[in-house]
Every structure is written in C-alpha cells, then in structure tokens.
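#struct-pred
JK: can someone run the complex with adenosine monophosphate? inputs below
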Amino acid sequence: MYSTMQDVQLTISRILEHGRRVHGASTVTTWTGEPEPQRRTFAEIGDRAARLAHALAEDLGVRQGEPVATLMWNNAEHVEAYFALPSMGAVLHTLNLRLPPEQLAWIVGHAADRVVLVNGSLLPLLAPLLPHLPTVEHVVVSGPGDRSVLDGAAPRVHDYEELIAGRPTAYAWPELDERTAAAMCYTSGTTGDPKGVVYSHRSIYLHSMQVNMAESMGLTDQDTTLVVVPQFHVNAWGLPHATFMTGINMLMPDRFLQPAPLAEMIEREKPTHAAAVPTIWQGLLAEVTAHPRDLSSMKNVTIGGAACPPSLMAAYDRLGVRLVHAWGMTETSPLGTMAHPPAGLSAEEEWPYRVTQGRFPAGVEGRLVGPGGEHLPWDGESAGELEVRGTWIAGAYFGGTGGDPIRPEDKFSEDGWLKTGDVGVISPDGYLTLTDRAKDVIKSGGEWISSVELENALMAHPAVAEAAVVAVPDEKWGERPLATVVLKEGAEADYATLREFLATEGGIAKWQLPERWAIVSAVPKTSVGKFDKKVIRKQYAEGGLDVTRL
Ligand code: AMP
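RT: done, structure tokens with the ligand placed:
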C-alpha cells in the first residue's frame, strides 16, 4: 500500500521562498571594515536572488544542470548565489580560495565551470589563473576591488550590481526533481586529485532541518549566528540554508577573519552562536586574553572540522561561552555527530560527553569496522574505522562533466557505506570518540598511539598555544611520535617539563611519550584551517625542523 500523502519535492527554492516571505525581516549582516557593516534583509536577499537568476539565465545563458563557480568570502552576495543558482536549476560550485592555484585550475576544469562569480577583493587571485581556465567565459565581480587587473582577460567581465539591476524580483523557479544536483564542493584532496561531492536539493533540505533541530544547533529567529566557517567549506556547515528555514540572522565576516576583527564583530553585533574550526577559537582566545572583549552574547558555539582540545573547551567555559563539539566531512554535508550530553547530568558528569565527537542524529547511521572487515561492538573499547550512511551522506564522487560518478574502493564499502578514514570507538550509549585519522595514527611496535590524545594533553599545558604530533620513522619501533609545539607569547617551557606534564597531568602511558620534540613558530594549516600533518612530516623528512631528542 502506498501512502496518501502529497509528494512535494524538497527543493532549495522552497527554502528561499519560505525565508523571504515568512522571515523577511531577518537579516544578513556583512562586515565591511567600514564604520557600518552592510545590512540586508531576507526579503531583499530573496529579491536580489531572483534578479541574479534572471541575469544569469537571460544574459549569460546559464542552463539547468550547469555548475556555476563562486570564488567568494562569506557575505550577502554569496548567500544570494547560494539560493539563486540551485533554485534556477543550476549547480552552486563553491571554490576554496585557499587552495594552491594549480588545484583551483584543475577543479574548475574538472567541473567545466563556464561562469565564475568572484569578490573584487579576490581578483588578484583569479586574474593570473584565468589563462589556465579555458572553460570560463564569464566573470561576474561583486564588492570592492581593483577591476583593472582583469583588463585584457579572455572571458567577459560583468559587474554584479549592474548585471542584476532592474531585473524582476520574482522568478518562476522550475519544479525540479529533488534528487538533482544543487551544489558541489571538492574535498581538500590531501592525496591525489580533489574529489567532487555533489549535494542534491533533497540532501540539503533534510540536512538543514537537522541543523535546526535542538539536538544539533537548534537556533531560531531570536538568534544571530556568526558564520566563520567559509561558505566554500561544506556549505558553511549548512548554515545559510538552515537560517532561511527558521529566520536565524546571519553575521558574515567577509575577508575579516583575523582574531581582532572577529572579536570586534562579536562585541559590536552580539551574535548568540558561531561556527568555526578549533584554530579560529584558539586565535580568538589568545586575542581576548591579550585585549579583553565582551563575548558574553555568544552562548553557544559549534566547533568541529578537527578535534577540539578539551583545554580549549574549558577556557571558553570560563568565558561563559559553551563550545559544542561536532564531527563531519565534506562527504557528510557535514553534520555527522554532535556532542550534547545526555539529560540529567551535573556539569562535572557532562564533561566526558562534551569532549567526545558526539551522537549520530536519526538521519545518519554509523558503524565501526575492524582491520579484517568485521563490524565492532559499541562498547567504548573496540577501535575501528568509522563508516556512515544516510540521506545526506555521499554515495559516490563526481566523475567530471559528462563522466559517470566514481566509487573508489577505499572510500565506499561494498554495501555502499562511506568509509570515513577516521578511527575511533563508540560507547554503549552511542557517543563517538575519534582517536585519529587512520593515516595519522602512530604505529609504534605494533601498538597504536593516538596523535590527537597527545596533542590535547599538550595543549592543556599553560605555556602551550598549539601542538601537533605526527608519526615519524623509527628504526626500533617502526614509528614514533614527534611533538611540534608552539609556545604562547612570552611563555617558556623545556621539553623535559612538557614530557613530564604529559605523563602526570595528561595521564599518557610512558611508552607513548614522545622522545622527539621541536618548538615551532606556527603549526602549518590546511586550506580550511586544520593542522596540516603531511607538511610537518615532509618538513621532518627534509630536515627542516630543529628536533631535540630526549
Ligand atoms: P573535511 O572534509 O575537509 O571537512 O574533513 C573531514 C575530516 O575532518 C574528518 O574525516 C575528520 O578527520 C576531521 N574532523 C572533522 N571534525 C572533527 C572532529 N570534531 N574531531 C576530529 N576530527 C574531525
């Protein structure tokens, strides 16, 4: 028997039209570096998204199913593109502006992007790339920036505001199949070429509802979220879509992502929530320690993308800001787990739950797989690779324009689950604790050492700002940990003291303590602000680190 219910397609245009009509007064505020930020209501964003769609379809010939690239910061125009493109049936292709130029060129070619929307401030990045982007025919520039760098460029150049001016503020959005492509994002590609993940209207719609559930971010139109996580990093974790569903106000930092302007933004605009990777929160903490600011509006922060050091969580607790730990990937849209403790616990009892990666929502199933392919119990002890499946989890990668989707064996199980490459345990009550990326685990004499555990313990030392631990080759043990440490400004600590601290305060077993140490001025970061361990391993291999052996 089939149901008797209506079968309405879950499309982005429905989210947009809901947001502009029901939450028309909610706002997107973009930091400009000027005395006043730019403010735009959801109603205005809706009007401008319709105008943009008209311009792209009528002047630039953008068709359904066509990817259109954005090379943009987090700002109102990027939100307009977020809605206009999928609603008109095109595919929003966000480009990671921190990728090396040759990777960006490869990605644009792979997707065969014909149109690029770009912020004026990013033209110095785009202009030298254009000769290597043969598929690009149109460049649409928004916001301040010297346009003359595009003089003589092969593609046609348009000004965003001129292009959309005078167009109708309504668009007859096509009735799309919810399974068609709405957006795409390439993974950072630590090995091999980047891989394209293509989100459907349906996956984004369902994921947005999950973002809005109280067990996830649970925000309403009384909230303002500071969206630090870039719109090119897994759709800013789904926030732009989720906000239009419930009227959450957005505060967008544009290119002002340094700790000082972020602190100023928070003090002045008083967001109640924010989302970003741990390195952003580390930087902000150092900033407000040196130059105190009022962060008290920000009750709740979603932190993920890399393991959150418990010491960081504790430091923000003292500032009255609660960091809520979440795990996800480009392939998981990204919401995979979120660490809200179970009900009825004291603050002390909540702590061990808060530092886990959290629980799966109903839309995501997880399982742990051992080295022999066996499925492991949720007993809090059996460690294996995490595999996931669900309605907003990738089942394949984009095979290039005109190509079939690809399903590499090391990324998908035979029965279609996504192999995450993350290793961890799951407790009987469903809390996931990740110990490492499979490729970052340190295999010492047949035993595994968690690099994340060592890092977390080190970052709890008062003199340590950041610490990254990687496996390095060792004649006797196969691999041993190398600890690279960034000291806080003006702080001092010798290696023996740090090692002792790991053993005593950190509770690290003696055989796991690193004997190789290096003080560094900064931990290298990936394009999305995570520790870049492959760079550290390379620096070590090439003798580029001043290593002391204890
Ligand atoms: P990306 O697709 O670039 O966002 O990277 C996804 C990867 O980031 C995951 O597979 C994890 O290795 C890592 N990651 C994300 N969130 C967390 C977290 N909360 N704790 C530990 N690792 C994380």
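RT: quick notes.
The domain at 440-549 is CATH 3.30.300.30 (GMP Synthetase; Chain A, domain 3).
Residues 42-58 form the longest helix (17 residues).
JK: thanks, will look after standup
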